[in-house]
């Protein structure tokens, strides 16, 4: 399955986010970089509309 990044935040800061889509579903990926490691976590796969709501809430400061 092919995953596409539809939107992303700036990766010039230690924590960045990506809105990813594939197979009609979507999820948000968070990448946290430090001097010693990189940690990547992903939200559950959601219907596209629900993932866009999560993405919007994240960008507006309503989600964690």
From TrEMBL:
What this protein is called in its record is Uncharacterized protein
Which organism is the protein's source? Nonomuraea bangladeshensis
């Amino acid at each position: 399955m092919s995953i596409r990044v539809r939107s992303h935040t700036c990766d010039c800061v230690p924590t960045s986010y990506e809105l990813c889509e594939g197979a009609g579903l979507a999820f948000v990926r968070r990448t946290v970089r430090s001097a010693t490691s990189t940690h990547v976590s992903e939200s559950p796969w959601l219907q596209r509309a629900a993932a866009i709501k999560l993405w919007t809430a994240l960008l507006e400061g309503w989600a964690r």
